[in-house]
Structures are given as structure tokens and as C-alpha cells.
């Protein structure tokens, strides 16, 4: 028996006894770690899904896109291009582009070899707002490029750009208004100082050339009794409701007006709506299918708030009345017949119900925002779960250290036992 014990490795015995002693707590800690890790992953996925859904919602609420998509065509894309928002009303229009808006641009001619004046003030007035550049503040031996830089970097410059253009023996200081429109008129003046070189600037101002006049865009709407519309920009957003016109080229007398057609894009509408419904169903479905989310009060709160929104009223009507409804499994669906009827009857009302300031998308955006942002509710929940997971990790480390001491204790005991038995056998062998 003793010889049998002596043949057993104390390290093996210590390891086996330690494993038996640590097994139950290892299993408990591993289970808790797995639980918190699964919860953390589920909450992260939910937050990512909500962020993506929120982006989709904001996109549908933006000025240039809507669930209720419209098509818009121009008979001359080189003259004007057109985009229609969801609230555009179907119709045909005739538009004549009489004049494009443009910014004011002046050119002053200078001898590139001449020395720039060391004093005097160049004043620039833009639409009644002026600022002055003091030439005495320029670097020593300043060049025309230094004057241009001083104009561009002036603290009071609110919409003027200066650049140099070289042509043969002349250098032009070109000064432009940043914004187009007749109101953005430039006026330049110079107050000379003692330096006689200031006469060059005075002469340049006297001979200034207008490269572009400050002017508004002018379009005529209609072919018979035309309505004239002016705009400081070549992008017109308020001529036809829900339609953006980008003017590209002025027409000449005798040109035919550009024919513009606006209409509903039924295929795009169905695609947009289905994309939205899929996004919603994916989130709600993930909450219902994932045990970690299904049993989580915050995830269930999101689900309940969503459902409450869809069961509310917008513009005095329910979403069910316009074909947006839940099936018996809680999935969001669209009844095509009811939706098409609502779209044909009153597209403006339907657009307001879906994308208006108090519409379905706005309420969803308000609901989702606190959960989806990085430092929001789900972000805080992740920190709480991560703290619990870190605590389990710390407990595991302490348990590992404790078991390491236990192993050493067992190893010492079994080693000592083996030594003691060996000594007893040696003593008995002497008799």
C-alpha cells in the first residue's frame, strides 16, 4: 500500500483535489460571465439597430427625401434641373429662364513691377456692410498678394473674396462677392496716405472693370400670362411647393419654355415604405426572439412605446385607416388597397401624417433618440452590464489566486506525506 502511494505524483494529487474544490465556483462564475456577456451583446445590437433605424427615419424626414416619393422631369436638363419632395403636388408647368443669378465681380489692373503703397486705406462695401484694409499694416515690401490676403483674412470680412489673375504684362486684383444676387453689390474706394505709390491704387479703381454684374435670377412661370419670379440664388425652392429648381442656363428670346412635370413615383413610395416597415419589424422581432432582450425591461419599454405610436392618431386619422397595420403576430404590414386609396385621395394629408412635425416619423424619432445615442439610456445600460462583467472577472481572478494557494497547500501536504511514508518504510526495513 505504502509503495503504491509513493509511486503517485504529489503534483497530480494536489491538482485533482484543487479541481474538485474549485469546480462549483468556477461553474457559477462562468455562468454569470456568459450571462452578462450575452446581455451586453444583445443591448449593443439593439442600440446599433435603433441608430440605423433613426438614421433612416431622419432621412425620410429630410427636405430632399420622403416616404411619399415624387418624380420630376425637365424637358431641358441643361437649362434647369428639378427635384420633387414628398409634399410636391402633381402637375405640369412651363418655365422660362430669363436670367441667372450671379455674384458681383470687379477687376483692378496693376503693374506687377510697381511697389505697393505703404499707407492709405482700401474700403470695401458689400450690400451696405463695409470694412477697410490699412496698407500700413501690411508686411514690409508688401506685394499685391499680401493685399489680397489681408482682404480675405480681415476680421470684418463677411462675404468678399480677393484673388490675383495675371494676363501678359498686367496683374489684376479680382474682388468678388461670395453670394449672388442684385443686393450683393460691391463698392470700392481708397483713401490715400502720404506714399505717392497710392496713386496706382487710385488709378486702378478709376479703371476698374466689372467682370460680372450683381443680379438676381429671373424666371417666368407659365406660357400665357406669365408670372415673373426673382431670386438671389439659382436654386429656387419656393416657386412650386415641394419642388426645387436648379437654374443652369439663361434662355434667349424665341426659346421655348422648359416643360416641367411632377408626379407621384408609386414604385419608389412602395419601396420606401417597405424599407421602413422592414426596419421596424427587424427591431421588434429581435426583441421578441432574443431572450436577453425579451426579459429586459428597457427593451420591452422600447417595444411598447413603438406600438403605442402606431396605435395613435395623426391629423385626426389612425395609421390603420391609411393601410399601416399590425398582423396577428405583431408584425407591421401595409394594406395596399387602403394605402393607395389614401394616397390618391389626399397625398398632402398622408405626407403630414407620416413625415410632418407631429407625424409618425417625428414621434418615432423623439422616442428612439434617448436610447440610440452613445451616452443615452442603452449606453448607460451597457456600462452597468460591463461593470457587472468586470466584477465577475475580478472575482474570477481572486478565486484563481485563492485556488493557487490551495494547490500549494495540497502539494505541500502530499509531498510531506510522501516523505513521511518513505521515512517509515526505511525505518521498518532495518528490522
From TrEMBL:
<protein>
    <recommendedName>
        <fullName>Flagellar hook-associated protein 2</fullName>
    </recommendedName>
</protein>
<keyword id="KW-0282">Flagellum</keyword>
<keyword id="KW-0966">Cell projection</keyword>
<comment type="subunit">
    <text>Homopentamer.</text>
</comment>
<keyword id="KW-0964">Secreted</keyword>
<dbReference type="Pfam" id="PF07195">
    <property type="entry name" value="FliD_C"/>
</dbReference>
<dbReference type="InterPro" id="IPR010809">
    <property type="entry name" value="FliD_C"/>
</dbReference>
<dbReference type="Pfam" id="PF02465">
    <property type="entry name" value="FliD_N"/>
</dbReference>
<dbReference type="InterPro" id="IPR003481">
    <property type="entry name" value="FliD_N"/>
</dbReference>
<keyword id="KW-0975">Bacterial flagellum</keyword>
<feature type="domain" description="Flagellar hook-associated protein 2 N-terminal">
    <location>
        <begin position="8"/>
        <end position="104"/>
    </location>
</feature>
<dbReference type="InterPro" id="IPR040026">
    <property type="entry name" value="FliD"/>
</dbReference>
<feature type="domain" description="Flagellar hook-associated protein 2 C-terminal">
    <location>
        <begin position="214"/>
        <end position="425"/>
    </location>
</feature>
<comment type="similarity">
    <text>Belongs to the FliD family.</text>
</comment>
<keyword id="KW-0969">Cilium</keyword>
<comment type="function">
    <text>Required for morphogenesis and for the elongation of the flagellar filament by facilitating polymerization of the flagellin monomers at the tip of growing filament. Forms a capping structure, which prevents flagellin subunits (transported through the central channel of the flagellum) from leaking out without polymerization at the distal end.</text>
</comment>
<keyword id="KW-0175">Coiled coil</keyword>
Amino acid at each position: 500500500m505504502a509503495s503504491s502511494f509513493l509511486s503517485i505524483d504529489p503534483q497530480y494529487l494536489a491538482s485533482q483535489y484543487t479541481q474538485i474544490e474549485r469546480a462549483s465556483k468556477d461553474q457559477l462564475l462562468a455562468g454569470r460571465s456568459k450571462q452578462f456577456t450575452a446581455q451586453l451583446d444583445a443591448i449593443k445590437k439593439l442600440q446599433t439597430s435603433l441608430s440605423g433605424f433613426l438614421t433612416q427615419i431622419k432621412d425620410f424626414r429630410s427636405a430632399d427625401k420622403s416616404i411619399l416619393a415624387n418624380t420630376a422631369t425637365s424637358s431641358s436638363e441643361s437649362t434647369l434641373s428639378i427635384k420633387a419632395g414628398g409634399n410636391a403636388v402633381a402637375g405640369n408647368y412651363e418655365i422660362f429662364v430669363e436670367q441667372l443669378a450671379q455674384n458681383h465681380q470687379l477687376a483692378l489692373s496693376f503693374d506687377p513691377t510697381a511697389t505697393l503703397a505703404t499707407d492709405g486705406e482700401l474700403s470695401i462695401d458689400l450690400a451696405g456692410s463695409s470694412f477697410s484694409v490699412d496698407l500700413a499694416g501690411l508686411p514690409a515690401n508688401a506685394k499685391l498678394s499680401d493685399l489680397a490676403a489681408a482682404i480675405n483674412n480681415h476680421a470684418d470680412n463677411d462675404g468678399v473674396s480677393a484673388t490675383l489673375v495675371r494676363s501678359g504684362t498686367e496683374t489684376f486684383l479680382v474682388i468678388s462677392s461670395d453670394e449672388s444676387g442684385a443686393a450683393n453689390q460691391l463698392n470700392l474706394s481708397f483713401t490715400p496716405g502720404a506714399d505717392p505709390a497710392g496713386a496706382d491704387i487710385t488709378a486702378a479703381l478709376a479703371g476698374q472693370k466689372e467682370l460680372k454684374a450683381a443680379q438676381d435670377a429671373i424666371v417666368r412661370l407659365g406660357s400665357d400670362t406669365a408670372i415673373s419670379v426673382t431670386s438671389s440664388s439659382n436654386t429656387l425652392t419656393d416657386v412650386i411647393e415641394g419642388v426645387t429648381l436648379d437654374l443652369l442656363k439663361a434662355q434667349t428670346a424665341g426659346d421655348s419654355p422648359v416643360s416641367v412635370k411632377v408626379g407621384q413615383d408609386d414604385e419608389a413610395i412602395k419601396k420606401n415604405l417597405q424599407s421602413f416597415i422592414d426596419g421596424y419589424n427587424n427591431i421588434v422581432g429581435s426583441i421578441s426572439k432574443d431572450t436577453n432582450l425579451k426579459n429586459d425591461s428597457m427593451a420591452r419599454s422600447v417595444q411598447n412605446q413603438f406600438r403605442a405610436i402606431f396605435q395613435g392618431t395623426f391629423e385626426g386619422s389612425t395609421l390603420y385607416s391609411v393601410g399601416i397595420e399590425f398582423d396577428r403576430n405583431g408584425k407591421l404590414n401595409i394594406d395596399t388597397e387602403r394605402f393607395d386609396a389614401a394616397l390618391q385621395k389626399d397625398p398632402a394629408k398622408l405626407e403630414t401624417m407620416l413625415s410632418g412635425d407631429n407625424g409618425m416619423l417625428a414621434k418615432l424619432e423623439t422616442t428612439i433618440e434617448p436610447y440610440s445615442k452613445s451616452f443615452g439610456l442603452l449606453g448607460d445600460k451597457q456600462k452597468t452590464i460591463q461593470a457587472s462583467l468586470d466584477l465577475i472577472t475580478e472575482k474570477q481572478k481572486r478565486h484563481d489566486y485563492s485556488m493557487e494557494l490551495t494547490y500549494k497547500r495540497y502539494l505541500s501536504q502530499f509531498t510531506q506525506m510522501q516523505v513521511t511514508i518513505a521515512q517509515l518504510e526505511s525505518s521498518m526495513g532495518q528490522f
